[in-house]
Amino acid sequence: MTASPDYLVVLFGITAGATGAKLGSDEKELILLLWKVVDLANKKVGQLHEVLVRPDQLELTEDCKEETKIDAESLSSAPQLDQALRQFNQSVSNELNIGVGTSFCLCTDGQLHVRQILHPEASKKNVSLPECFYSFFDLRKEFKKCCPGSPDVDKLDVAAMTECLNFEKNSSASRYGACQVEDMGNIILAMISDPYNHRFSDPERVNYKFESGTCSKMELIDDNTVVRARGLPWQSSDQDIARFFKGLNIAKGGAALCLNAQGRRNGEALVRFVSEEHRDLALQRHKHHMGTRYIEVYKATGEDFLKIAGGTSNEVAQFLSKENQVIVRMRGLPFTATADEVVAFFGQHCPITGGKEGILFVTYPDGRPTGDAFVLFACEEYAQNALRKHKDLLGKRYIELFRSTAAEVQQVLNRFSSAPLIPLPTPPIIPVLPQQFVPPANIRDCVRLRGLPYAATIEDILDFLGEFSTDIRTHGVHMVLNHQSPFVFILPPRAQGRPSGDAFIQMKSADRAFMAAQKCHKKTMKDRYVEVFQCSAEEMNFVLMGGTLNRNGLSPPPCLSPPSYTFPAPAAVIPPEAAIYQPSVLLNPRALQPSTAYYPAGTQLFMNYTAYYPRKEYSLLHQSCSTAPQVRPIVLATSLQLLILAVSLHSLARWSECRAWPTILELRKFLTSSKVTSMQPRMDLYTQMTRPGLYPKNGFVFKGPSS
Q1: How far apart are the C-alpha atoms of 359 and 339, rounded to whole Å?
Q2: Inter-axis angle of helices 664-671 and 639-656, to 10 degrees?
C-alpha cells in the first residue's frame, strides 16, 4: 500500500499477564480488545469500542487485575477469540460503510499488539485472522518520522508522544487501555494537521506464509538476525517453526533444521529473520510452547546458519530452484535404485514434479549411492499421498519417507560430499567404563533416562528417581554429552559439548532397575516428561560411544565423520589450576599447530562426565580432598585413553607434516614412567554433596571419566 488510507483503526490489546514492553512475552492470552476509527480525510475520531475475550485459562495476574479492573467472572461469559474478531470486523465495516475505493489500515502502539499477541494466539487456536491484520502502522515509527527530534523508537510510548506534543494528561478514561486509545487518536489528528501534515503511506507487513529457498555459503548474513531454537519435537518441519514464530517475518529459506551425526533431526533449528527488530521479538518467545513442549530461543550467528543451510552445489541449487514445492526425503533406497523405479514407487496419485528431474539422489564424492534421495511434489495433497507410502517396499527394502526442507537437502549433501574417498578402518569400540564397573552383558540392571531437560543436574535425577536413588551403584550415573571436541578425554566437561538429554543409571540389581523403569516412566522433571527404559551395560556402552539404541535394536557407532575439525593451538591442554595432580611434563606442552583432518567413527563421541556415589567410599581419599574444598573437580585421562590419543595425534601430525608435535615414543615413555603409576590413586576427585536429609549423609559427587 503506497497511497495513504482513508481511515485508521486504532487498535489496542490487553492480555492476562504482562503489559508494556513485556506484552506477550509471558504467553498469556488476550482478554480485552479496544479500537477506535480515525477519519483521516475529515480529521475526525469515532467512538471507543471494546470487547472482552474469553481465554482458555481463566487465570489473571495480580497486576492485570489491578490495572484493568477485570476479573475472571466477567471473562467466563465473554466470547472466544474467533467470535470477538468477527465482532471487530463487523463493527468496523458498519462504521466505515466500506464501499468501492474505501480503504483502512490498523494503527497500533508499537509492534507487540499485532506480532506478539494476535498472530501467535490465532495460530495456536487455528483461528483465521482477517486480511486487515497482515498490515498495520506502527505509531511510534510514524511519530519518529513526523518528529525527528523525539526520543528513540524503543523509548517512545503513548505517554512520551503526548508529552512531546504538549498535550494535557487525559484523566477522563479510568480503565487501562481506553486512555491509551483516546490519546492515540489525538496524536494521529495532531500529526496529520499543521504544521506536521504527516502522511501515513508505508505500513508494516506480516508475512502470510513461510517461503522456502536456498542459501549460498558465499552469502553475507547479519549476525543480529539469527536465533537458535532448541527442544523442537523430532517430527517438526520448517512450517511448524514458522507457525511457532507466527507474526514475525522469517527470511526466505530462513528456517534450517539441524541434523545429528546419523542424519536425523536433533531437535534444534536455526532461524533467520528479515531484521534485527524481528530477531529481538523472537527472543522474547523463549520457553513459549509448541504443543506440550517449551522451546528455548537463543542468539546465534550468521556463520552458524551458513554451516547448516549454506551450499555450493549447482546440482542442489537447480533442484531447489523450483519454488513452492514440498520436499520429501527417501531413506533406505537400494543402491541400484533408478529414477524410473522411484517414479513408479510413488505412482499416479502422487506425481513427482518434473518426473525424473524432481528426484535428487545423494551420493558420495566417488559417485557411490548412499541410499538417500529427495523428491519434489507440487502441492500438499500429493505430498500427503506420498508420505502414506512410508515403509512400503521398493524391491526387497522398505523405504522411510519424511517431510524435508531445503536446508536439510543442503546439510545431507554437504555431509556426504565431504566424506573421505578412501574408506578408513573403523577403530574398535573401547568401553567408556572401566571393566570393574561393567556387569555382564546379559544382566539388564541399568536404566536409560531419555528426554531430560538440558539443565538437569545429578540432584534433579536423584529427585526424579525418588526411593530408587538408594539403589544406584558406585559410579552409577552417566550423563551423555553431544560431541564438541575431539579432545574429550582431557578437556573439562564444559568443553565437551551440550547435554543430549540422555542419562544412564546403573542399579544394584535387575529387579530394582525393572521397578524403577515401571514406576518412573514418563514422570515429569521441570515441565518435561522423561522416558525410562530398562537396559543392559552393553547397550549403555554402545550409546556412550556414539551408537544408537531404539526399538529396532542396537546400531554401532557411525563411521562417517563431519566435514572437518579445526584444532586451535591452546596454551595448555590440562587446566593449570589442576597442576597439583599432574606430572610436570604436561604443564607446559608444545604449541599445537592448527590442522584439519577427518576422524572416522568420530562423528559423535560421548563421555560420561558425572557419576554419583550413594555411600561413603575410599575414606582415605575423601579425607585428603576434604581438607582442600576450594580445589575445583578436574578431568584426567586413563593411560589407555592417553595412548589412543597419542596414536591419533602422531598420525595426524605425520599427515599434516607438523614437526612440533610430540612423537609417539615421547608419549609412550611418559606413559610408562613412574609418575603416571604414582598418579593412579589420584585419578578420582571427590567433593562432598551438601544435601542433608534428602540423600545419604555421606554422599559424594564424582566428576570426570570413570576410572
Answers
A1: 7
A2: 170
